[in-house]
Specification:
The complex is a heterodimer of chains A (258) and B (274).
Chain A lengths: L1 H15 L3 H25 L10 H35 L3 H4 L5 H5 L10 H15 L7 H27 L1 H4 L5 H9 L11 H10 L2 H12 L5 H28 L6
Helix pairs in contact in A: 2-3, 2-6, 3-6, 3-7, 3-11, 7-11, 7-12
Chain B lengths: L2 H26 L1 H28 L3 E2 L2 E2 H17 L7 H8 L1 H6 L5 H31 L7 H26 L9 H14 L11 H8 L8 H8 L4 H30 L8
Antiparallel strand pairs in B: 1-2
The chains are: A mainly alpha (258), B mainly alpha (274).
Chain lengths: 258, 274
Amino acid sequence: MKLVWTYLRLGVLNEMQYRANFFVAIVQSLLSVAVSIAVLALVYSHTDELNGWTESQLLVVLGVQILLGGVIHASVQPNIERLTQEVQDGKLDFALTKPVDSQLIISMRELQLWQLVDVLSGAIVIGVGVSRLQTSVGAGHALAFLALLLIGASLLYCFWLFLATGSFWVINMWFLSDLFEGVYQVGRWPIGVYPGWLRYSMTYLVPIGFAVTVPAQAMTHRLHWETVLVAVGFAAVAFLVTRRFLRFGLRRYSGASA
Amino acid sequence: MSAQESALRSYWDFYLAGMRQRIQVGFQYRAATYMYTVGMLAEPVIYLVVWRTIANQHGGTINGVGAGQIAAYYIVWTVVRTFNIVFTPFGWEWRIREGTLSAQLLRPIHPVHYDMADFAGQKFPWLVMYSPLAVGLALVFHPSLHPRPLEILVFIVAIWGAYVIRSLNHFVLGMLTLFTTRATSVFQIWFLAELLVSGRLVPLSFMPHWAQTLAAWLPFKWTFYFPIESLVGSMSTQTLLTGLLWQCLWTAIGSVLVFVAFRLAIRHYSAVGN
């Protein structure tokens, strides 16, 4: 924990050097949210509900997607991009030779603090969506929502790390961010909207259904406890598989540094 | 051979060499190219599914556009999107910081040509990779696509026109980074405007009337909506040819802006180099 705290503090201090980026992040986040809401308004100008989801319920889905996107962009993406770059450059040795768990150190060296603005934007969008719902949200739903958000974040982390581990074989992984950004947009809409083949692949292959739609279901009274159990089990299996796959990849790494 | 002919020949050879090199790189890193293509596929599939769902909820059409036409729009969209991938204005910050712009300025050809040759070559591996995916999408979503030979011809010209217009626009935007290190927000506004009124997000006919009027005065629709509709829609011969003329106009405007912006911006450049 001491090590995690030290890296976190370093990341914050590093970002505090560039305070103006905070305002840039706010402008970007506001623009992004404004366009997303405009898209929702455009869709709902043609219909009253999308596959049973009302506009307010979809605001909650959108908010969860933005919030989790902020978490990913702040903490997961920069670390994973550094990992793939270091594999390509042969500089990963510097992390591997440290006397701590490799996965831990690989996953916490970078923090882009200002990206967390999206967490705030997402929370506001969720709040607006919930306030416009016909039904009230109880403490149980809110707790389930927070727990499922954590599970969702860990699933997305596992997905990123699993893909990045491919860099031990593919080497050139410049496409990783583009691939994730493209696929992550699927989460802007409830997973049930998509046809079966896409719904299952975006739930079990790319866990966006579990990460975004399931927490939103908790806030919109659509959640079944069976879904929670499957999400918890799936997250545990995903974490173990990702960890084993990373270790398998690391065994292949030969390094290139002097 | 006159001096002008010789210069044109040199540019032609330069573009061919640049494209050939990029095609080879694209096929060398096949896995990376394929994964990128798959990532790019998500955006049109999302739009397609959402609008098709709405169409199906309302008797199969939205504003008179059927589900099959919506499917065709977004499948062709992906080809057009591929051609709209150009050097990002964000990349100029990196070029300045790393000093690679200094090296580019020493070369005898304007930097815009390097990017245009490079990204033009990228289109071919992407198209090869996308073809089987397009067949898969067609089997799943049943597009309604029956183009005339003239429409196919105009489409082929229009996607390259879109590529040139977007390259020039992004080059001009990129020049902002020589004036300020905070140009990112401006880029974001540009991209969001493009998303809304280019036909990238939805066919423009689904947009409110004021948005369609606004789109007519901006370059964006000539890079997305027009190329797609030239193949998918049922435009008259006159509309098709007028569209190509509009693309020529925006290419001319973009070229002048690149010339002016580059001359102004480069005066602010203090070299960082290696």
